[in-house]
Design a protein that fits this description.
Radius of gyration: 13 Å
Helix content: under 10%
Order of helices and strands: EEEEEEEEEEE
Mean pLDDT: 96
Low-confidence stretches: none
Oligomer: single chain
Number of strands: 11
Number of helices: 0
Strand content: over 45%
Distance between the termini: 34 Å
Structural class: mainly beta
Length: 123
């Protein structure tokens, strides 16, 4: 099970940190991902982190502003979001996959995905 949390309403320029706790699995066996889905749009890839945490891949839209990290001892992946923009408004989903890591995957092709957490950025 994947449980994301930390969403909320913030103003443009603010920061927010999302968390995703993974249970019922060996966390270090999975590369972890964050996706987001804006209103009336398809889900889009945001970032991924490798099984050990040693490698990351970011979508161009968030590069330099978002930071993904993981704590394998706590079975948790984090998404630190800085300099938020109104266009970052979306439901954010975490996902896990044993085989996949990298850029541009489809949320619906992930081995596991959790319920999302809503991030709203006001201008």
């Amino acid at each position: 099970q994947l449980q994301a949390s930390g969403g909320g309403l913030v103003q443009a320029g603010d920061s927010l940190r999302l968390s995703c706790v993974v249970s019922g699995r060996t966390f270090s066996d999975y590369a972890m991902f964050w996706f987001r889905q804006a209103p009336e749009k398809e889900p889009e890839f945001v970032v991924s982190i490798s099984w050990s945490g040693g490698s990351t891949r970011y979508a161009d839209s968030v590069k330099g502003r978002f930071i993904i990290s993981r704590d394998n001892a706590k079975n948790t992946v984090y998404l630190q979001m800085n300099s938020l923009k109104p266009e970052d408004t979306a439901v954010y989903y975490c996902a896990a996959d044993k085989q996949k890591f990298g850029l541009g995957f489809d949320l619906y092709n992930m081995e596991n995905r959790g319920k999302g957490t809503l991030v709203t950025v006001s201008s």
